[in-house]
Amino acid sequence: QVQLVESGGGLVQPGGSLRLSCADSGRTFSSYAMGWFRQAPGKEREFVAATIWSGSNDWYATSVKGRFTISRDNAKNSVYLQMSGLKPEDTAVYYCAAASNPRALVTSTDVAYWGQGTQVTVSS
Question: Which candidate, 41, 97, 36, places its Cα nearest to that of 68?
C-alpha cells in the first residue's frame, strides 16, 4: 500500500523558489514511478513532472521545463519538486502521484495513488 503525504507548499513572490516534498509511508515506494501534478482553480489537473523508479530519468511539462526539478530519495521514501523562477500562473494545488511506469504519469492515465495535495500560491 502506498500512502502519499505532500508538504512544503505556501505563499511565494514571483521569481521565488519553493521545494515540495512527498513522503510515502508504505514499503514499496522504490518500485513506483513518481510524479507531480497540479490543478489551478477552474482548470483540470495537469501533469508537471515524473521520474522513473531509480530517479535516473525524468520528464517535464513544457511550461515548467528548466524551472522545476524532480528528484527522489528511495532511502527516505520521498520525492521532491524543486521549483524556481515561480510565476503567478504556477499557482495551484500540487499533487504527488505514483504509478507503475512513468508513461502513466506523463499521459495522466492509470495513476495508482494520489496524495491529498498542497497549495502553492505565487503572488506579490
Answer: 36
Question: What torsion do the CA atoms of 90, 91, 96, 102 make, to the nearest 10 degrees?
Answer: -30
Q: Taking Cα atoms as reference points, which of 56, 120, 122, 53 lies closest to residue 88?
A: 122
Work out the mean pLDDT of the chain and round it to a whole number: 95
Report the distance separating Cα 6 and Cα 22, nearest Å: 4
Please give the grid coordinates belonging to residue 117: 495535495
The continuous run of DSSP H or E covering 105 comes out as: helix 102-106
- CB-CB contact of 84 with 66 (8 Å): no
The tens digit of pLDDT for each residue in 6-19 reads 999 999 999 999 99
Grid cell locating 98? 505514483
Report the alpha-carbon distance of residue 101 to residue 92 in Å, rounded: 25
pLDDT(1) > 80? no
Mean pLDDT lowest for which of 26-30, 44-48, 81-85, 99-103?
26-30
First to last CA, the chain: 40
